[in-house]
Amino acid sequence: MIVEERIYTLHVGKTAELVKLYETEGIPIQSRILGNFLGFFSTEIGPLNQVIHLWGYDNFEERTRRRAELLAHPDWQNFLKKIRPLIQSQENKILNPAPFSPIGGGK
Questions:
Q1: Which residues lie closer than 8 Å to 75 by C-beta, 6 or more apart?
Q2: Number of folded domains in the chain?
């Protein structure tokens, strides 16, 4: 298993708006297509005005296929038009769990 961490830094004061849009529109679309939704978080200490979400995939190829399907979906494209003005920057990481990790580690 791999875990994708997606970090979005938002314009000041836009966190609540983005969280609400994700809850009502984004997560329902993403969960259907991407599958293994692990969590959604916002920051309170450290870098502020950030939201982070985690997605699990069997491997990088599955992630690539599912992300392509998501990007091609018209509902997702409409959703992106709503959230892009709220986002200042984005960072993605692919995390490989250690063998002893409870999330996708060894058996």
A1: 29
A2: 1
In this structure, what are the phi and psi dihedrals at residue 23, rounded to the nearest 5 degrees?
-60, -45
Residue 105 resides in a domain: no
Each residue of 8-52: pLDDT tens digit? 999 999 999 999 999 999 999 999 999 999 999 999 999 999 999
**Angstrom distance (rounded) from CA 57 to CA 66:** 9
- What is the domain range of residue 87? 2-95
Specify if 74 maps to a domain.
yes
Rounded to a whole number, what is the distance in angstroms from the first to the last CA of the chain? 12
Is residue 83 included in any domain, yes or no? Answer: yes
- Counting DSSP H helices and E strands in the chain, the numbers are 4, 4
